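Supplementary Note 3. Input sequence used for the single-chain structure prediction.
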Amino acid sequence: MAKIRILDSVGIDTLCDLIADGHTQRDIAALYSVSRSTVAEYLTAHSEQYARAREARGDLYFDKIQDIAENIEGDPQRDRLRIDALKWQSSKLNPRNYGDKLTQDIEIKGNITFDEFLWQKAPD
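The predicted structure, written as discrete structure tokens, is reproduced below.
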């Protein structure tokens, strides 16, 4: 409980700013001398703010991808690996903006309504 008080004194806004700036729960735990599980518990208790901070971190990673792509110096293989890792992380942190888009195409042949199509017997 004393460890939670330490994080309460810091405040959820400060912790979320650190998350949005790319710091991990492990970084925050080391910074405030608490366990990572204490940080995770505290952030879970403030889930809406934590979710917004994670989305902002996804945006930060997307910006890093642009910086890496625009840099003509460096190792292309290493840069490609970094970009792939950041793209994957962005898609998990902010799936609404950077996640895979799933679409479904349905083709109905003939002149029937959608309800009729749903209720017709499947071919054997």
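The chain has one domain: 2-96. The first helix runs from residue 2 to 10.
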